[in-house]
Design goal:
With 126 residues, the protein is mainly alpha-helical. The chain is 82% helix and 0% strand. Helix 1 packs antiparallel against helix 2 and helix 2 runs antiparallel to helix 3.
Length: 126
C-alpha cells in the first residue's frame, strides 16, 4: 500500500517538473528570439520565415492528432488535454509575436531617434 502512494507522489512530482521545464524552455526561446530580433535583425530575418512554416506544419499536425484521437478510430473516449481552441490561441499568439518582431527595428528606431535628441547636451550660445 505504501508503494502505491509513493508512486502517486512521484508521478505528481514528475508532472510538475515537466511543466516547469517546458515553461522554462518556452520562456528562454521567446526571449532568445526577441534578443536576436533586437540586436541582429538580419540574422532574425533568416530564421523567421522558416520558423513560421515549421510552426504552421506543427499546428496542422497537432490538429490532425487531436481530430484523430478525440473523434477518430483510435479514440478512447477520454477528453484531450488540449482542445482546438487552445491550440489555435497558441498558434495565433506565436504568429503575432513573430510578426511583431519583424517590425521591431522600425519600432525601436523611432524611439532611438527621439531619445538621441533628448540626450544631446544643449549647444552653448556663441
Amino acid at each position: 500500500m505504501a508503494q502505491l502512494s509513493t508512486l502517486g507522489i512521484v508521478a505528481t512530482l514528475f508532472d510538475f517538473m515537466i511543466e516547469a521545464i517546458v515553461s522554462g524552455l518556452v520562456l528562454a526561446s521567446v526571449s532568445g528570439l526577441a534578443f536576436l530580433s533586437y540586436k541582429h535583425h538580419g540574422g532574425y530575418k533568416l530564421l523567421s520565415r522558416p520558423l513560421k512554416w515549421v510552426w504552421l506544419a506543427a499546428f496542422v499536425g497537432f490538429n490532425g492528432y487531436i481530430i484523430g484521437f478525440s473523434d477518430g478510430k483510435y479514440s478512447n473516449g477520454k477528453p484531450m488535454l488540449f482542445s482546438f481552441g487552445w491550440v489555435l490561441a497558441g498558434f495565433a499568439g506565436f504568429w503575432l509575436f513573430i510578426g511583431l518582431l519583424d517590425f521591431l527595428p522600425e519600432i525601436t528606431h523611432q524611439d532611438r531617434k527621439n531619445n538621441a535628441d533628448k540626450d544631446k547636451p544643449p549647444k552653448p550660445d556663441a
